[in-house]
Amino acid sequence: MATRTDFGPPNYKELIPPVVAKNYGQWKYHERVKPGVLKHVAESGDELYTVRVGSSRLVSTDWIREVCEIADKFCGGHLRFTSRHNLEFLVSDKEQLEPLLQYLKDHGYPVGGTGHAISNPVHTQGWIHCHTPATDASGIVKAVMDDLFEYFVDWKLPAYCRISLACCLNMCGAVHCSDIAILGIHRKPPHINHDIVRAKCEIPNVIAACPTGAIRPDPKNKSLTVNEEKCMYCGNCYTMCPGMPLADPLGDGVSIWVGGKISSARTPPKFSRLVIPYLPNNPPRWPEVTSAVRNIVETWAKHARKHERMGEWIDRIGWERFFDLTGIPFTVQLIDDFTMATETFRSTPTFKW
Amino acid sequence: MTNAKDTETPLLDQLEEGPWPSFVKEIKRAAEDNASAKDLLRQLERSYNDKIGHWKHGGIVGVRGYGGGVIGRYSDLPEEFPAVAEFHTLRVNHPSGWFYTTEKLRQLCDVWDKHGSGLTNLHGATGDIILLGAPTDALQPCFDDLAEIDFDLGGSGSDMRTPSCCVGPARCEYACIDTLDILYSITMEFQDELHRPMFPYKSKIKIAGCPNDCVASVARSDFSLIGTWRDNIRINPDEVAKYANDGLDIQSEVVALCPTGCMHWDAATKTLTIDNAECNRCMHCLNLMPKALQIGMERGATLLVGGKAPIVHGALLSWVIVPFMKMEPPYDELKDLIRRIWEWWDENGKMRERLGELINRLGMRNFLKAVGLPPVPQMIRAPRANPYYFWDPEEVK
Ligand code: HEM
Ligand code: HEM
Ligand code: HEM
Ligand code: HEM
Ligand code: SF4
Ligand code: SF4
Ligand code: SF4
Ligand code: SF4
Description:
The complex is a heterodimer. Chain A is of the alpha+beta class. Chain A has helices at 18-23, 61-74, 97-106, 138-147, 149-153, 194-200, 203-209, 236-240, 287-303, 310-317, 319-326, and strands at 27-34, 37-42, 47-53, 58-60, 78-81, 87-91, 163-166, 180-185, 215-218, 223-226, 253-258, 273-280. Chain B is an alpha+beta fold. Chain B has helices at residues 10-13, 23-31, 35-50, 102-115, 136-148, 179-189, 191-195, 217-220, 237-245, 250-254, 284-288, 332-348, 355-362, 364-371; strands at residues 55-56, 70-71, 74-75, 88-92, 99-101, 119-122, 129-134, 164-165, 205-208, 223-229, 234-235, 263-266, 271-274, 293-294, 299-305, 319-325. Chain B is globular. The interface between A and B is large, with 113 and 122 residues. Bound molecules: protoporphyrin IX containing FE (4 copies) and iron/sulfur cluster (4 copies). One protoporphyrin IX containing FE sits between chains A (30, 82-84, 86, 113, 119-120, 160, 162, 261-263, 265) and B (97, 166-167, 171-172, 212, 214, 287).
């Protein structure tokens, strides 16, 4: 049998619930009923309740079958997921809303992540499945969200807060525009295992893979050398060649970035900025990371004005005040010296003490 | 809590506790009847002890007819963890807006239980359904069974990656464009680009229905299509007054935070006016008063290009190149422009150079000329502050 190809994803038109098909493009307004529950009202008068549920993103087929049962029971067999790994139950029959919420509560599904809350952290693979991680992804997310759980299920913050995690500087999750980004970093160049390089690697390909030109041939040894000053720890060489592992228990760890945003509401999108250059990997619960994140969230929550995102708050008070209020030490790693560094230097004598 | 079995993974077991859903529980559930999930758990415990990962890249794997869609993954400790010696990922193209019927999801579970680890990511950061972990010889049979239930693979490598969109008109009153339909239409149009790596590097397309950009398109896609409108915000004065009566401080929470200063609130008469010509459609006021304020009626999209994560030269946010484009099926204007841009990038881009980096290297002017777009002030935050313009002799006549 010839393999069928290029037929594309299932057509969403066959998967959306009837209430969505009927009111498609005709939604009039929404209300935030309570944390995790949205109510959308259509021009036709139809109402749709959305119940947002946090998930661990890494889920078993048992879990999928379980949430399917819930959707069969309360939502006519329909469900969806969000761009931040949340699960959403869509309830068109208002009578089913309270029973659904009760069921979710009884079975330990966290409802929240809407409104002025911390939503599910976007994250990547980490030690679960990638070959260049500087830290785990799922483990830190679990530890951080256990700690910040109250902010997922409740509205206690001045504005949205998006936390994201990427386990190496490739930033597969594109975390660089988050209110708080947790980024795995390597601090040591690859250690070369010359025997493996000789046995298994195409030396010209490895050299070509390095974005900074740090790798040179070492013809005497039929191997390679790395100019350590040029290495930016990206792991591309390890992708090409198992003889160049980058991971190192002492070198690897976590950095913290703050103040990014995506939406254009009020102020344009911004990048997150480095505020803590390194915290050690301390599995299974990464206490240094969870307490650093909590400190930043709570300092912001205490001082920001209503609707002020992390980055907007910092723009108003200034970075010098941010370091002052959070008590985070300012260190030389925080001063940019990469491609667009000078844009970040101050050229006026107007700053705060 | 501690029976003999649990103590094999004492560190990970600690992550079964706490209120947030536990991925460790999920792996353990899958491990009950799946050897590879069990070895995944054991290898991960090893990583928690060693503080390093234990995966390597190894050879390229895939399915017949496709150049992407599968990520090859091998344990670097295959003797210790034989069931994950080969543990490849299939990226499966998700339906627009991540809508499912339970029937469809169960079919997917059946296929994955048969061929793989029983573990998935719903969803990966690009949007795909990630089927996490199958040996090499299971890939083709798995794909054949996926095809039976109409699930195709997504992108990986130097191709168009699986595009994604926000929930849009399916459930959001701010949707200025039909994000789900545009997504489906371009996914079907560009199947070849999705499945067969042919570009200098990856290329991503994301579609958001309005400037709230709930899919983070400006930060993580080479092409960000964002819905917008050109006429006036529709105001329902009665509902405005109701928000005020219900305790919303319209002056301080709405008007004072409007970035363009184009709103006026008369507290005495409870009247809100907007100078629409000056509004930049930032969404703040609509977000706070969805019942009272509605998007305009003359709708289309703004196209921005060039966004990417930091590797190699630093992160970029997408730049406006088409301030307004009407979005009507079959979206030919959009598709043609995407094609022209890809062609230019393909011709000029070096290996692993994203579109934004190429525009930066060769200059916005060359890009605009090559793809035939006129310069307009909506493209920039400010004009240049240096006099180093290299005049084209054509321009000096
Ligand atoms: C009241 C205004 C807003 C409404 C009605 C709204 C609506 C939505 C909807 C329907 C989703 C689900 C999208 C999907 O998964 O396809 C969503 C997700 C999201 N929105 Fe918005 N949005 C609003 C404002 C914003 C703003 C201002 C931001 C950024 C500051 C934002 C950021 C996000 C993010 C990051 C997600 C993913 C959330 C998650 O999965 O937990 N939204 N929003
Ligand atoms: C640590 C900093 C930097 C690193 C690691 C770096 C790395 C690289 C690499 C690996 C390439 C080759 C890319 C390829 O062939 O695909 C490259 C090219 C280039 N880089 Fe950088 N770069 C850095 C800083 C800069 C800076 C500061 C600028 C300019 C402001 C810059 C401008 C360029 C340009 C224009 C090219 C293309 C050169 C050409 O076409 O010949 N780079 N860079
Ligand atoms: C040298 C650069 C990069 C390398 C070597 C790389 C490698 C990888 C690998 C191996 C995976 C699969 C992980 C797994 O499932 O085992 C992955 C996933 C992914 N990559 Fe990259 N990547 C690079 C750059 C990027 C960049 C710049 C982006 C974003 C713009 C990106 C976005 C993604 C996304 C979204 C995923 C899916 C992650 C998830 O859902 O867990 N990658 N990458
Ligand atoms: C090829 C490029 C440039 C040339 C030939 C040039 C030439 C000059 C000359 C002849 C003066 C007057 C010096 C004097 O009276 O002693 C001057 C002053 C100045 N230039 Fe430039 N300049 C150039 C580029 C720039 C650029 C790029 C900047 C800033 C971004 C700049 C900033 C200034 C400033 C601030 C002054 C002092 C102005 C003042 O006293 O009011 N120049 N330049
Ligand atoms: S961020 Fe780095 S370590 Fe994490 S999945 Fe992407 S490439 Fe792998
Ligand atoms: S880790 Fe990256 S920068 Fe360092 S040598 Fe390898 S390829 Fe080059
Ligand atoms: S981007 Fe706009 S249209 Fe799309 S879900 Fe978010 S608020 Fe709604
Ligand atoms: S959308 Fe933004 S700019 Fe326009 S009136 Fe509302 S707050 Fe002001």
